[in-house]
Design a protein that fits this description.
214 residues, mainly alpha, Arc Repressor Mutant, subunit A, two-stranded antiparallel ribbon, 10 helices, 2 strands, globular, Myb_dom
Amino acid sequence: MPSTSKPEKKWTPQEDEILRAAVAQFGTKNSWQKISERLPGRSNKSCRKRWIHSLDPQLRKGRWTAAEDAKLKEAIKEHGLQWWKVARQIEGRTDDQCAKRWREKLDPSISRRPWSALEDQTLMDAWRIHGKRWNVISTMLPGRPAVHCRNRYQSLTRVSRRSTNSAASADSSTPVLLASSHGRDSEEDVDRKPSKVSSQYHSMPFVLTIGSTS
């Protein structure tokens, strides 16, 4: 059987303070082994990752600007998908942030089309088999990144719940008709703007019954 790596235990506030103090004393250049010695149970790689991705005061979090997006595109033209090189050109952004931004928002291979009824059916069929393993599900939907699949699923299930609640007198096992959204799905738009169901959708063949994945 393939070995499964044990997930790293969550960092505590006390560990974070020790890490900050050690970085202040030793700096971050070729010092991670010394720093890790202050934190029993944490490797030099773990300490470096925690600092770079969470504690570095120069780290930028939150919404990307248009200027950052432009820099990211230029950096990818120069370095390809070598994220550690790309991140050097985007001040305050990590390699993981750069990769996530590209894969979920800027990659030209991302589909900008409205979701079709066939894509919705494929999504729900894949969800019944794989659960919420969005990275796996996205491979079945070319042009739809994992986060878009997750957001689309959440949008569809919200519509289904509202339809079910409005038809409370109906049998609970009756399938609920769902619509394909005619708006653009993104990690921001889907959560803020749930899809609306109109009368034109009631002739569509796509159905979903909310239930477990078993």
